[in-house]
Amino acid sequence: MKSVSRLFFHYLLLLLPITLLPITSFAANGDSSIVEYFRARIKDYEKSGDYAYQKGKKLPINQVASAKERIWELWKNANTTFEQLPIVSSEAPKEKYDYPIYSWKMIEENPMPFYYFKKQEKPAGGYPLFLNTHGSGPKSSEFLATLKWSLVYQDGPSVYFIPQIPNEKRYRWWFKSKQYAWEKLFRLAMIDNTFNPNKLYVMGISEGGYGSQRLAAFYADYLAGAGPMAGGEPLENAPPLNFRHIAFSLETGEKDTGFGRNKLTLAAKQQFDSLSKMYPGDFIHKINLQEGKGHSIDYRVTTPWLVNYSRKPRPIDYEWILFPMDGRYRRSFYNVFVRKPLNISEADEFDRASFKFRVDKKDNAIYLETSLKDKMSVKSKPVDSGEISIYLAEDMVDLSKKIKVYYQGKLVQNKKLQLSEANIIASCAIFADPERLFPARIDLKL
């Protein structure tokens, strides 16, 4: 147990005010309006509006790299207005498991306590970060048990963010209030040089296994990998196609019959095995029913395997299943942004949409196909609402030449794209990711 003085010290840390950085420091070069735009977008946790930035100069290709660096620094500055992740202490706890407990205010939810610690010294490229979600027993004991297991895993150097469920009456890691928290975590991790932005992982045991599988499908574009354990979601809750470019580990007991976990894990294995044959090298997975095990399994095999894999932030061939989670749809995935939402809802028969995106580098062409899908992705029908923006980087297509755009098999555009600072600014606000600052954009009405 922590001493009273230590608990009081950490409580005071949480109450310290955040110093606002003066916008006037940017006035000389006109960057204050960009910072203000960023601050407004950070406050917009629902990601409403089309996020267009109306100012910003045109860019020749040789100025794109420097513009990205400058705009990313402005984004980092705008974020410090709100909050930053704690500093990971290098001090070992004086007592076993005597780790500090931090807390986040939540949107539409009670505060969320969390452990936050590192293993070993920072590697040259930055730490891998594991978001590790606990099971659904009494939250105090599950929280501590998850800390203990996290210290056992041989995945260092690494950093762990271990949240405690804010309210046992709402024991789901994928509810909207938690979605806002994970999006904040990704955003803050991306601006923190502590971390490697291409080595973020989500994992968990039991209820945390269910949650991490759903979250991985929802946020695959931010993740290098996912490791649910003793779980097994129905695949309609975590569409396998969204896992195409991340590493996926699922470990379940052979005799874990509760809620059909063993059967659901086997169904996932069959689906992932099939997809890996269709797309060689793109569906890296390790799905295993541990022989003779029930709900308690060997958890130590997951993270040492996951930590070997890195994110592919700008794939040029993928399919995004836009599906609802607690009634909410994401507005973006990899390089696609939904400027005007589709007319679908979780209650509809066709409650999700498919976006098939592919670049043909040889022909400097982009192919996009869309359709609405039912929950099992068996039925489909045409999309008849919504608008999207496709953002492009210089390594995805040749931006110095005309780019052909095919939508639903028809050529809809063939022209050279204008590179602009405004596109980099808008994509920075949308994706909050140093690996996804895009100088070019194509707008399409669906």
Provide an overview of this structure:
This protein has 446 residues and is of the alpha/beta class. It folds into two domains: 102-306, Alpha/Beta hydrolase fold, catalytic domain (Rossmann fold, 3-Layer(aba) Sandwich), CATH 3.40.50.1820; 317-445, no CATH class. Helices cover 26% and strands 25% of the residues. It is built from nine helices and 18 strands. The protein has helices spanning 4-15, 32-43, 64-79, 139-152, 176-190, 207-218, 261-278, 303-306, 421-431; strands at 102-104, 112-119, 127-133, 158-163, 195-205, 225-229, 247-253, 285-290, 317-322, 332-333, 336-340, 352-360, 365-373, 380-381, 387-392, 402-407, 410-416, 440-445. An eight-stranded mixed sheet has the order 1-2-4-3-5-6-7-8, with helices on both faces. The chain starts with a helix and ends with a strand. The model is unreliable at 1-28 (pLDDT under 50).
Describe this structure in a few short sentences:
The protein has 446 residues and is an alpha/beta fold. Helices cover 26% and strands 25% of the residues. Helix 2 (32-43) packs across helix 3 and helix 3 (64-79) crosses helix 9 (421-431).
Explain the layout of strands and helices.
Blueprint: H1 4-15, H2 32-43, H3 64-79, E1 102-104, E2 112-119, E3 127-133, H4 139-152, E4 158-163, H5 176-190, E5 195-205, H6 207-218, E6 225-229, E7 247-253, H7 261-278, E8 285-290, H8 303-306, E9 317-322, E10 332-333, E11 336-340, E12 352-360, E13 365-373, E14 380-381, E15 387-392, E16 402-407, E17 410-416, H9 421-431, E18 440-445
Parallel strand pairs: 3-4, 3-5, 5-6, 6-7, 7-8, 13-16
Antiparallel strand pairs: 1-2, 2-4, 9-12, 10-11, 11-15, 12-13, 13-14, 15-18, 16-17
Helix pairs in contact: 2-3, 3-9
